[in-house]
From TrEMBL:
<feature type="domain" description="Trehalase-like N-terminal">
    <location>
        <begin position="5"/>
        <end position="147"/>
    </location>
</feature>
<dbReference type="InterPro" id="IPR012341">
    <property type="entry name" value="6hp_glycosidase-like_sf"/>
</dbReference>
<protein>
    <submittedName>
        <fullName>Trehalase</fullName>
        <ecNumber>3.2.1.28</ecNumber>
    </submittedName>
</protein>
<keyword id="KW-0326">Glycosidase</keyword>
<dbReference type="GO" id="GO:0005975">
    <property type="term" value="P:carbohydrate metabolic process"/>
</dbReference>
<dbReference type="GO" id="GO:0004555">
    <property type="term" value="F:alpha,alpha-trehalase activity"/>
</dbReference>
<feature type="domain" description="GH15-like">
    <location>
        <begin position="235"/>
        <end position="600"/>
    </location>
</feature>
<dbReference type="InterPro" id="IPR011613">
    <property type="entry name" value="GH15-like"/>
</dbReference>
<keyword id="KW-0378">Hydrolase</keyword>
<dbReference type="InterPro" id="IPR008928">
    <property type="entry name" value="6-hairpin_glycosidase_sf"/>
</dbReference>
<dbReference type="Pfam" id="PF00723">
    <property type="entry name" value="Glyco_hydro_15"/>
</dbReference>
<dbReference type="InterPro" id="IPR045582">
    <property type="entry name" value="Trehalase-like_N"/>
</dbReference>
<dbReference type="Pfam" id="PF19291">
    <property type="entry name" value="TREH_N"/>
</dbReference>
């Protein structure tokens, strides 16, 4: 990787309002504050020179490093091993599980386990994606970084008897960063605390205060994951995925970001570089199903409230839902390019915002209504006002489902009659009908039923291609699309239906490569972008579920186990897997982790049923 950390060489820490990536060399190379979608202050992952970074690592080269999470928590430990000693950096963010705040803490504890080690501490923020200059002042307790609208303090952790910070030990470089070298022996510990949005100079942090923050953070995560009801075969991986989804949830609104990063490429050196720090109606809806399956009703209820607000806004305007929003529910996601950044390994342009927000994607109504239906089955009933607005959305869909759209994959090659969009329109109408009938809620059931049946007939006649003996990506094409793996999961077609069996076998031949699944063939179905991409992790987990539903349990289990080997050393997944097994795209990706959870639950259920059958 030419000395640059691979995407998968990172762990994730966060406080439920923002998050940071920590590379296995001790560098925080991505961090935005005060929110996930705020401008970055550390972004050396996208530009080593201009992006800014925060590194703590042994001075000596050649150390072997390993990363792990403190079991049952989101506290990350990076260990460094050398002949002369073993040391570690413990990274965490105290949880902000409340109203939005500009004050966030990033704590880095440094300790030596064996022998003696010299650590280099480098903190070089680059505010506003590296576009804003700042001043640097060394104070008695640390360093104050100040820029236009930006304030960050770096406090040095020291014992009560220690004197004020020695300015001579902190070297300020020409770009306003600081560097220090500290030596410690076995049993000794220290550290630093980065505070964003402070209301004064760096505060004094003593070891006891830092350890108390660590204890509280550890207790929060262990108490939270202790609520999980999953007791299946892959508990460790499922629980890590659940914690990863929690880390990507913005506590003040309950919204889930698709990923905490922007600009990480789907093809190194290519242009498929997007900003995923927003909330897609589709992704977050899928997460509700996954989290409810693990017993996390509070998180599901939080997102349903966020979704209810978007439905209310759309219903009052009698307009469609937008496919994505900012985490606070605002709709302005204007896309722009950061031309001053070189991009990850030269992958340009680096984009912030997302122009796909203006696309029409009809499938989102299916995911949203299916989520409301699943939540209703768990006792989270839609209130009267919510149903009133939801009815207007469904009424809109009955009039507009037969339109071309941009599709699930947000292609930029023009609208088509995407089969997946039609299938999910059927789901939206079907779930709305079921909720109305079950709860006795008012609705134009005759119109909804006619529309639902018309969608079904159209998919079966136009989405099915006789020559391919398979359902295809869109009505005017012959390309297969892995999104259709979801058809039996939503009940559109029975898993033993001959048409579905034939479609699945066609996908086996054309989209599956040694168990990994491509979304579609971009060469056969131009998507308006240059270059190719890797296999899509979510699709591989969907493939596992489809195999399990179709009774191919041995294949499903082997495929799932193989896919687990592509997670990184911490069990985290980006969006895609490249041809060499490297991870590609924004990291970690919510879609990948929620699909892992769903696949594990589906496969567990099917394996248990198989084991219970008489011999």
């Amino acid at each position: 990787m030419d000395g640059h950390p691979a995407i998968e060489q990172h762990g994730l820490i966060g406080d439920l309002q923002t998050a940071a990536l920590v590379a296995d060399d001790g560098t925080i190379d991505w961090f935005c504050s005060p929110r996930f979608d705020s401008p970055s202050m550390f972004a050396s992952l996208l530009d080593e020179e201009r992006g800014g970074r925060f590194r703590i690592a042994p001075e000596a080269e050649g150390c072997v490093s390993r990363q792990l999470y403190l079991p049952g928590t989101a506290v990350l430990i990076t260990r460094f091993m050398a002949p002369d000693g073993v040391g570690e950096v413990i990274d965490f963010m105290p949880v902000q599980d409340g109203p939005a705040t500009g004050r966030h803490l990033l704590v880095r504890i440094v300790r030596v386990v064996r022998g003696r080690m010299r650590f280099v501490v480098e903190c070089a923020p680059a505010f506003d994606y590296g576009r804003q200059a700042h001043t640097t002042e060394v104070t008695e307790n640390g360093v104050a970084f100040r820029g236009p609208g930006c304030a960050v303090n770096l406090s040095i952790v020291r014992r009560p008897e220690e004197e004020a910070v020695d300015a001579a030990q902190l070297r300020v470089d020409g770009r306003g960063g600081v560097r220090a070298v500290v030596t410690a022996s076995a049993g000794q510990a220290g550290g630093v605390v980065l505070e964003t949005g402070p209301d004064g100079p760096p505060a004094r942090w003593e070891p006891e205060r830092v350890l108390q923050a660590l204890d509280r953070t550890r207790a929060f995560w262990r108490n939270w994951i202790g609520r999980s009801t999953y007791r299946g075969r892959w508990r460790e991986m499922v629980e890590r995925s659940a914690m990863t989804l929690k880390l990507m949830t913005y506590a003040p609104t309950g919204a889930l970001v698709a990923a905490p990063t922007a600009g990480l490429p789907e093809l190194v050196g290519g242009e498929r570089n997007w900003d995923y720090r927003f909330t897609w109606v589709r992704d977050a809806s899928f997460s509700v199903r996954a989290l409810l399956g693990l017993g996390f009703e509070r998180e599901a209820e939080g997102f349903l409230k966020w979704l209810g607000e978007r439905v209310r806004e759309a219903g009052e305007r009698s307009s469609p839902l937008q496919i994505m929003y900012r985490i606070d529910g605002s709709a302005d996601l204007a896309e722009q390019e950061l031309g001053h950044l070189t991009g990850y390994l030269g992958s340009r342009p680096v984009r912030i915002g997302n122009g796909a927000a203006a696309q029409r994607q009809l499938d989102i109504y299916g995911e949203a209504l299916d989520t409301v239906h699943v939540a209703d089955a768990h006792g989270l009933r839609v209130p009267h006002d919510g149903w009133t607005h939801l009815r207007r959305i469904v009424d809109w869909l009955t009039r507009h489902w037969d339109q071309r759209d941009a599709g699930l994959w947000e292609t930029r090659g023009g609208p088509q009659d995407f089969t997946y969009g039609r299938v999910m329109s059927w789901v939206a109408l079907d779930r709305a009908i079921r909720i109305s009938q079950k709860r006795g809620l008012p609705a134009d059931l005759a119109a909804w039923t006619r529309a639902r049946d018309a969608v079904y007939e159209q998919v079966m006649s136009r989405g099915w291609n006789e020559d391919r003996a398979a359902f295809v990506q869109h009505y005017d094409g012959i390309v297969l699309d892995a999104s259709l793996l979801y058809m039996p999961a939503v009940g559109f077609i029975a898993p033993d239906d001959p048409r579905w069996a034939s479609t699945l076998h066609a996908m086996d031949r054309e989209l599956v490569s040694d168990s990994l699944v491509y979304r579609y063939d971009p060469d056969a179905s131009p998507d308006g972008l240059r270059g190719s991409e890797g296999t899509f992790s979510m699709c591989t987990f969907w493939y596992v579920s489809a195999l399990a539903h179709s009774g191919r349990l041995e294949e499903a289990r082997l495929t799932f186990e193989k896919m687990l080997t592509y997670g990184n050393h911490l069990g985290l997944y980006a969006e895609e897997i490249g041809p060499t097994g490297r991870q590609l795209g924004n990291f970690p990706q919510a879609f990948s982790h929620l699909a892992l959870i769903t696949a594990a639950v589906d496969l567990d259920r099917r394996l248990d049923l198989e084991a219970a059958r008489p011999a």
